[in-house]
């Protein structure tokens, strides 16, 4: 048995095309994702899907409830996402420390054995119960277990540090609490809180982690789903506040009255930098500019015009035919994208369907920028956007 984790980027990309449902196990609801069903206080005697279903809490809106009930009944043919973590804490972080590495080659989904996950959880659970002098502190929606008399040092000019009684640093973050102002579709600015992702500074017997009981319930539900041979189950490893910080338009409570629930977005290739999509996305300049913050567009078509004078375009007029010499444009496209990203811009690459021409330029950029072989870059792009299917002629030119 393998337990599957995924990043917010994987969730974002999958949710643009495929049916999905989110099972939200968090105790404190601070905004929630669309297609979310909430669960809390699960019973230890829960053994079957029928038992599990008794705990589902649907939204009050009848239309949303009906949609989610239909998704649940079709759960074997959809993506099932489990959301266990409300904010940045050491319990989610320790998993990332175990299974992910630094650098651009990190996959946005990965699996580790259930035995290892359960062993790690049991270690954390044992720590949280060993000392009844500990109390749970809730600060900026981040949960940590600390000795009662410990303080959090905060200052604008220095990193914020958690300390235990022996003054051992456990978590440091450049800015522990961040305020974000987000403007969506020319509407009012929305202020919300999120928490910076901390990094692991030390571990040992004195380190206490939170979310232990919550994750136990997640593992229980995961096991029940597997009994029905449901394979598309992913635990979103990053806290939901990180998701909202990167993708505020996925917060159902913010967008339900703004007409964005049925919008689809281009797929994100490089986090908050590079996107790949189709001609319909290219037409929706409100979405590109106001929601995603796109500044530059590579239009790799003959048939689609440039739609906005607010965006900087590079138009490469080619057809999706194997005999077309696409490699003659590689230098020009690479420099356009690279210059835009160095200027802190955001780039959207598109063709008619987002499958071949635009995907070819996307793969080319990753190959050059990261010094990746073709197979690695192609697999990465297809993982982000499953529609991708570059024609054989373009592939041969990329390999050359």
Automatic annotation (TrEMBL):
Pfam families: DSPc. PROSITE patterns: TYR_PHOSPHATASE_1 (PS00383), TYR_PHOSPHATASE_2 (PS50056), TYR_PHOSPHATASE_DUAL (PS50054). Keywords: Hydrolase, Protein phosphatase. GO terms for molecular function: actin binding; phosphoprotein phosphatase activity. Residues 327-385 form the Tyrosine specific protein phosphatases domain. It comes from the Eukaryota. GO terms for biological process: negative regulation of actin filament polymerization. Residues 265-400 form the Tyrosine-protein phosphatase domain. Transmembrane segments: none annotated. CDD domains: DSP. This is Uncharacterized protein.
């Amino acid at each position: 048995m393998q337990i599957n984790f995924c990043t917010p980027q994987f969730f974002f990309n999958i949710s643009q095309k495929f049916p999905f449902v989110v099972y939200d196990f968090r105790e404190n609801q601070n905004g929630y994702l669309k297609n979310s069903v909430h669960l809390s206080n699960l019973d230890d005697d829960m053994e079957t899907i029928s038992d599990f279903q008794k705990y589902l809490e649907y939204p009050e809106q009848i239309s949303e409830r009906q949609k989610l009930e239909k998704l649940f009944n079709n759960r074997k043919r959809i993506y099932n996402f489990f959301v266990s973590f409300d904010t940045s804490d050491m319990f989610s972080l320790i998993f990332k420390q175990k299974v992910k590495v630094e650098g651009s080659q990190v996959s946005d989904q990965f699996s580790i054995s259930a035995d290892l996950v359960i062993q790690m959880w049991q270690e954390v659970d044992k720590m949280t119960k060993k000392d009844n002098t500990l109390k749970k502190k809730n600060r900026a929606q981040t949960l940590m277990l600390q000795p009662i008399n410990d303080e959090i040092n905060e200052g604008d000019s220095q990193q914020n540090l958690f300390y235990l009684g022996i003054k051992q640093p456990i978590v440091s973050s450049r800015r522990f609490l961040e305020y974000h102002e987000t403007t969506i579709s020319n509407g009012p600015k929305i202020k919300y809180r999120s928490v910076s992702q901390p990094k692991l500074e030390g571990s040992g017997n004195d380190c206490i982690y939170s979310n232990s009981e919550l994750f136990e319930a997640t593992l229980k539900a995961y096991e029940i789903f597997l009994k029905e041979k449901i394979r598309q189950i992913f635990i979103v490893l990053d806290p939901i506040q990180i998701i909202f910080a990167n993708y505020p338009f996925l917060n159902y409570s913010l967008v339900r009255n703004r007409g964005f629930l049925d919008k689809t977005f281009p797929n994100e290739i490089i986090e908050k930098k590079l996107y790949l999509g189709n001609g319909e996305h290219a037409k929706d300049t409100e979405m590109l500019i106001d929601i995603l913050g796109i500044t530059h567009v590579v239009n790799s078509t003959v048939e689609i015009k440039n739609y906005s004078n607010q965006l900087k375009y590079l138009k490469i007029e080619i057809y999706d035919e194997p005999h077309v010499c696409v490699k003659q444009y590689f230098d020009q496209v690479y420099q356009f994208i690279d210059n835009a990203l160095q200027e802190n811009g955001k780039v959207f690459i598109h063709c008619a369907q987002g499958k071949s021409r635009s995907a070819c330029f996307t793969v080319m950029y990753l190959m050059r920028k990261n010094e990746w072989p073709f197979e690695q870059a192609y697999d990465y792009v297809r993982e982000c956007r499953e529609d991708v299917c570059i024609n054989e002629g373009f592939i041969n030119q990329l390999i050359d």
